[in-house]
Every structure is written in structure tokens, then in C-alpha cells.
Design a protein that fits this description.
By secondary structure, this protein is α/β, with parallel strands linked by helices. It contains 13 helices and twelve strands. The protein is 35% helix and 22% strand. It is globular, with a radius of gyration of 21 Å.
């Protein structure tokens, strides 16, 4: 049985004059201890996916249809009271900015102890010992002293380590990390990602890593979902997607990586922008930006098919693949 099974999940937002679709029938599975990456540009639906799984959508957003099963239990539409026993306990989320997650008027110790006591029958002394142990696991120096400090007294990297420690407090089976290093200096990002990988691997915790950075995904995950305009347009083993991307959008993301451009040359980019939810094109949503688009792409939405060991939603995947082969043999 999968740790997490998502089927045909559709999320909509009820605006003043219309209802728009943010997630359009997405489906995927996550095994116990498996690491899954979700990548795409801003507006692709990555973070909405994470919020939906945690049942943290707020109005005007709502789950319109579909299923989310966690350890065999249906949690889509679960009442908030019941969801609270799962959220933070069996599922945890790491957000982009630790200063948004941490309460600025409470000490680190107060926040960690309250989290533990909300889900476990523990004395304050026992909760503090568990908190200290978790801070040591994320290599926080002098953890006893950190319990008495406030978030603003710590560096960005230290705060993010504390967020990871808090996510692991109750030993969840699943962690959803939404751009966990965005607010950090480049020099600290690699350390945080390495720490997260180490902790998830050693504790057999399932990980969903939400990011726009395919370079990070290639180092951290076993499987990858590529999202565009609320749909999964390519899915498969991370190594297969990185080495042999099938969808033109995935190819564009990989070509845009800095290491794909010679020093002194202009960085490559995908022309145009992600469409807004109220203006998603007919047919394939990527067609206005796709160099391979034909009339069929502009009129009919592509179905997801198995191709070259991945699942891909593209009408022209055969022609695109043949074109690449011809270029390589030339």
C-alpha cells in the first residue's frame, strides 16, 4: 500500500465573477520513505498541491473533486478537527520562509513544547528533552540555549534548521517541503538540503519536495512530477527525466539551468510566461510558448501517455523525439 495516493485531484478558486481551476485532475503515488520532487515555474500549481494534501486551503480555494488517501485513509474533505490529529503528527510541512512559520513572540522552546504537548501526553520537562534531542539531530549548537531564544535572535539558516527539527518532532511518515531554501543564502542552501535528505533517509520519512530548481531535484529525489498550469505534464524517475526529458516544457526548464550555458553567454530561457488561472489556453496549455506546437496542440488537450519510461502529456512527443535523434546523428 502506498503511503500517499492522489487520484484526479481538482482544486478550484471561486472568484467574484468566475470559478478558476488551479489543479486539474492530478494523480500520483508516494511510497513509504520515497522522495518525490514537484517542479515547475511560479503559478504551475506546486504549492497548491502541497496545501491541498495538508488540507490547508483557505477560501476562496476548495477541493472540487478527487481523492487523497494517506495510509489508506481518505483525507480529502476531512473535518478540521480530525485533520489536526494527522497534520503535524503524521504529516508535516516545511514552508518557504521560517519567519512566517515561527511565532515571533514565543521562544523556540515554547513553540516546540506546545507542539509536542498538543499531540502527546508529556510533561514539560520530557517535551523539552525531546526538543533538545531534535535540535541536536539538525546540528544546532548549544540546543539548550536555543530553547530560550526568540526567532529574531537566530540566523536564517538556524531558523530553517529549527523548522526542520519541528517538522520531525512527532516523527511523521511524510514531510512536504515547499521551497525550503528560498529565503536562504546560496552557501547555506546546500547544507539545508543535505540535512533534509539525511534525516528523511535515516528515518524512512516520505518527502515531497516542491521547487522550481531541477538541479536540486536531481540531487534529492527518486521520482519527479513536472507541472504546468495546474496539470502534471511529465512524470517518472528523476534520472530519466533529467537525462532524457520528453516534454518541451521540461526540456526548456533543463536548458535554462545555468550549467547548461557556456561562461560569457546569455542564459537560455523559455519565451513567454505561465498563463494566469483565468486565461489558460485551449488545447495544450503550453502551446503559446512551445516551438513544436501545431494546430492540434491549440485545439485539443493532450492525454497522458507512457513514452520512453515516463508519463508525458504531449501530442508531438513522437515527432519531437525523432527530431532529437536526427539532430544527434547529424
Amino acid at each position: 500500500m502506498s503511503l500517499l495516493s492522489v487520484r484526479d485531484l481538482t482544486v478550484k478558486f471561486a472568484m467574484r465573477d468566475q470559478t478558476v481551476t488551479a489543479l486539474d485532475q492530478i494523480s500520483f503515488d508516494l511510497g513509504k520513505g520515497e522522495r518525490l520532487g514537484i517542479v515547475g515555474e511560479s503559478g504551475a500549481g506546486k504549492s497548491i498541491t502541497g496545501f491541498s494534501l495538508m488540507n490547508l486551503l483557505s477560501r476562496p480555494g476548495f477541493i472540487d473533486s478527487g481523492s487523497i488517501q494517506f495510509e489508506g485513509e481518505e483525507i480529502a474533505g476531512l473535518p478540521d478537527r480530525k485533520m489536526r490529529s494527522i497534520r503535524g503528527n503524521r504529516m508535516a510541512m516545511i514552508f518557504q520562509d521560517p519567519m512566517v512559520t515561527l511565532n515571533p513572540v514565543l521562544t523556540i522552546g515554547q513553540q516546540m513544547v506546545e507542539t509536542l504537548q498538543a499531540h502527546r501526553r508529556l510533561s514539560r520537562a520530557d517535551a523539552e528533552q525531546i526538543a533538545i534531542m531534535k535540535l541536536r539531530e539538525v546540528y544546532i549548537p548549544s540546543p539548550e540555549e536555543r530553547l530560550a531564544q526568540y526567532p529574531h535572535e537566530l540566523s536564517g539558516g538556524m531558523r530553517q534548521r529549527i523548522i526542520i527539527a519541528m517538522a520531525l518532532l512527532l516523527e511523521p511518515q511524510l514531510i512536504i517541503a515547499d521551497e525550503p531554501t528560498t529565503a536562504l543564502d546560496v552557501t547555506i542552501q546546500a547544507d539545508i538540503m543535505e540535512l533534509l535528505l539525511e534525516l528523511c533517509t535515516s528515518n524512512m520519512v516520505g518527502l515531497i519536495l516542491i521547487t522550481h530548481d531541477l538541479g536540486v531535484v536531481s540531487q534529492m529525489t527518486e521520482r519527479t512530477l513536472v507541472m504546468y498550469a495546474g496539470r502534471i505534464i511529465e512524470a517518472g524517475k528523476t534520472r530519466e527525466i533529467i537525462n532524457d526529458p520528453q516534454h518541451p516544457y521540461t526540456q526548456g526548464l533543463i536548458n535554462a539551468l545555468p550549467q547548461q550555458t557556456l561562461p560569457g553567454h546569455r542564459l537560455k530561457q523559455i519565451p513567454g510566461n505561465m498563463p494566469g488561472l483565468a486565461a489558460i489556453p485551449t488545447g495544450c496549455a503550453f502551446n503559446p510558448r512551445c516551438p513544436y506546437a501545431v494546430d492540434h496542440c491549440r485545439s485539443t488537450r493532450p492525454e497522458t501517455v507512457s513514452y520512453a519510461s515516463v508519463e508525458v502529456a504531449c501530442h508531438e512527443v513522437n515527432r519531437l523525439h525523432n527530431t532529437v535523434l536526427e539532430d544527434e546523428s547529424a
